Amino acid sequence: MEALLQWGIDLILAIQQIHGPALDSIFRAITFMGEEEFYLLLLPLLFWCIDSRLGACLAILLLFSSYLNADLKDLFQQPRPFNFNPNVQLAYAEGFGLPSGHAQSSMIAWATIATWTRKTWFWVAAIVLIVLIGFSRVYLGVHFPTDVLVGWSIGAALLGLYLALQPKIGNRLAQLSLCLQILLALAIPIVLFLIHPVADTAAIMGALAGVGVGLTLRHQYISLNISGTWWHCALRFLIGIAVVFALYLGLKWLFPSDGLVFYHALLFLGYGIIGLWVSLGAPWLFRILRLAPKTE
What we know:
Oligomer: single chain
Radius of gyration: 20 Å
Helix content: over 70%
Shape: globular
Number of domains: 2
Largest sheet: none
Number of helices: 12
Strand content: under 5%
Order of helices and strands: HHHHHHHHHHHH
CATH architecture of the largest domain: Up-down Bundle
């Protein structure tokens, strides 16, 4: 294992022979496309303006993927490259390194969207993005090449499993009563959090609970039509995303560290509110403001 990690360090140092301020900035911008804040922009855009079903499915898939990634990182507890050689660090990263969350989430996100578009050109663009995001993590010295390869592999496996099982699971859930659907939307994230009760899983599972409850109630009571003029779409996104980031930044301000009493429960609740806003609160407001037609 040490020989493999040393090979990774040597490869990073070889790649960084060409690094400079301009190239560093480019790869930091690319790596942002795997950050939490980027998905806070992308998923609402899909859900409110592109295709609500795509946005909902991708949100659930990414949240389950993030939970698994957090579990595996704490299981393997593999340090990052800069823990072995501080000279390779060109960007900030915390926690353990294996597998790469950026590689795993980018594989799922862009391959899912490419599958939805069914366009060859988008598949080419998606593959380029996936490769660049993974490479950026190695270039910046925050992941070993093996971290990225494992992240890609897990992401591809999860996507394949989702594509195979989603139709059957979706049909089964649709046959359940509203109360039972809501109970499952709350119980599954809570149980998964209790299995691995750390800050990351509290946020991830809180968001999943909020999204799950919101989607269940929206499907029952609010018909979100994302058609309309471009300015309807623009206003929906700007109004909705302003609330998302107000809630997100408010959480960071209210709960800055892990030292508070009931910190994990508060984090779960806070991210749950964000998920509930995206999936239910914003569509309800769009209907009131007449930014979305009443019927699909």
